[in-house]
Give the backbone structure.
Amino acid sequence: MQILRKEVHRVEFTYLGRTGMRVSRLCLGTMNFGPETEEKDAFRIMDAALDAGINFFDTANVYGGAGNRGRTEEIIGRWFAQGGGRRERVVLATKVYNIMEDPYDGPNEMRGLSAYKIRRHLEGSLARLQTDHVELYQMHHVDLNCTWDELWGAFEVAVQSGKIGYVGSSNFAGWHLAVAQSAARERHFLGLVSEQHKYNLLCREPELEVLPSALYHGIGVIPWSPLNSGLLGRNALTRTGQRSARAVDALNRHRGQLESFDKLCKEIGEPQDVIALAWLLHNPAVTAPIIGPRTIEQLEDSLRAVEVKLSDDVMGQLHQIFPGPGKPAPEAYSW
């Protein structure tokens, strides 16, 4: 079974959506920094990621664990504070939407987006990150209570003040992307440049509408949970130790597919997580999957995905194991 490999061992770069900003084809996710990964180890992972060519870092204001929201941004901020060009070399993305346990938010503490909340939570993120700007500021979820006039007005102010470079979304439907871009065009504003979305071999529903809409509107897709909470990882079938009831149920539901996947990966000679990431990178709508390493070793394992190019034969077999909708909407379900 043939797959083509590159000899280059550094991450490639691509443009984020239709912007002129280049980002690495793997995005370093930092959600584990604090709850799962100690600060000193997080520093080592971020240093190693930069050394490997990963310049795209993703975080969110709520990351840090229960009662410690904001802790992950603080860890990144202290890493930046070490200097050495760390901040200058990073394309930094963070998010706004969720509750930050800030008593001063008052009735606006609830989940959502508003000009008030965007301003306050952006200032909070910048302080924790020890920087005066972020390259990409993302809406962590859609808020249908806010008009696009309010949202784009708030983001325009943030862009014009130099506090953010671009605006992204997360967990938007295809039609949300279309409406957002239409409203932005009316204001002569760039609009969304990225959509962060759950997408992997076990979750292919985005191929119906989200990916086609993103491609049409020039929005780069940043897949989160590319390994579907570890089910597509190399240890999914052999892992020992305690699992949550939800994880056990998911494993049992997909066991047949995962066993077939394991067999195929052994024939290819690459571990499951590498193939799962390489499959995502094969899609022209995808800018950069978010990897969330807890250790240096996991980071190094993920880097291999950029080197692996899957043949048409392998892509076909993956489709048989993990069938998607086949076509975008409406062709997928109409005559």
Observations:
- The domain at 10-321 is CATH 3.20.20.100 (TIM Barrel).
